[in-house]
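User: I'm writing a tutorial on reading structure tokens. Could you give me a worked example: one chain, its sequence, then its tokens, then a sentence or two explaining what the tokens reveal?
Assistant: Sure. Here is the example chain.
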Amino acid sequence: MEQKDRFFSYFMIFTLIVGVIFGKFFISEYPIVPGFNFIYKFLVVLLFLYTLYIKRHSINKLYFKLLVFIFVYFGFMLIYSFLIGSNDPKAILLDFNLLITPFIIFCTTVILVPDVRKSKSLKLTIAFGILCNLIEVFVRIANGSMWVLEEGAFINSNGLYTHTTGLSNSIFILALLYLYIHKESKKHIIYFLLILCTGLFAARSKFFGICALSVFLLLFFQRIRLQLSVKNIVTGIILLLFIVIIGYSKINTYFVEGAEEGNLQSRLFLYLGAAEIFRTYVPFGSGIASFASPYTIKEYYSPIYYSLGMDKIRGLTPDNPIHVGDAFFPILAEFGIIGVFLFFYFFYFIVKKTNIYQDRTKREINIEYLLITIILGYIFINSIAEGTFLARTGHLAMIVLGLCMTDLKRKGEALEIKNLECK
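And here are its predicted structure tokens:
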């Protein structure tokens, strides 16, 4: 392995162990071993600087321009937030770091172009993580604590995860890495789906949707293309109906019964508050660390919650804001309508480049293309009712997204070189 590949694989291993498998002990709100959250942030900065140094003579100009634009836009939003006083300066800086990290990690991956498939240490870490999750599921089923929950958290927290979300996300990201790092074959696809299906025991409605998307793509719709077409629309409707049927009880609780009873659920109120912010703070939003972010609670409790009357909503109150940060999409209100446009354009750009790379391979089926589709589905499904995009599992998803894109690009370039040699 090259030095850059080894360095990147070690970063992934650290993220998996400290941020996902044993995240409860290292980077939770009350870690048993403090300081690792700071170490992780330091490593992200180090990886970014290392990438710029190692690629200084052969940097991908397209993705470097994207990176520069991201820094310029976030820098503007940082200054804007300070000027309007969206929150305490420390909260603004912490939230700035939280929000920009997934984009930096993605750009770093596609610029560095690492090859981690040869890393035996990474393979062992993935296998270890999968084994830990299997034991966690088995033990919780055996002692009857798997479905004994309060606010989605395990009543018996003597395990690797205090919340079902942590368990299901860990299972997904480890299954995703397993399929990516192994050679493309039907055997490994089946293993991936079997690993993924263990997450169904966590009984998260969003995970049912992600699992259904993975099964549909890998077993029935391998020739799918990321574009608007009759086939994709019909497939999307079928998947949506399946997700709605599976998750009806929670959808009904969050968005129907709560509204009818006049007792709005906190998650619904976050969306209503976001809509009001979009209407009021045109066009740049309410500023960083002002709404729906983890850094808008406790000592940094945002003044905007008072102005919207959200300080009296269960789960959003100053003394018990446990549901702030329950969904990612409402956070976009901090950036206004321009921020929403740029966020979705970023993923449109990814889809556009992915289709170009796919076409250049001259193959109908590429496992990387299918994984990109699954990752995009995972990000958008979870962003409705989770903040996964900003968590370590979200960071790893963005890494695999970047790895799959660079692999597709290399396949196309290898074919072009082969064709030239034949001529």
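What the tokens reveal: The radius of gyration is 21 Å. The CA atoms of residues 76 and 377 lie 30 Å apart.
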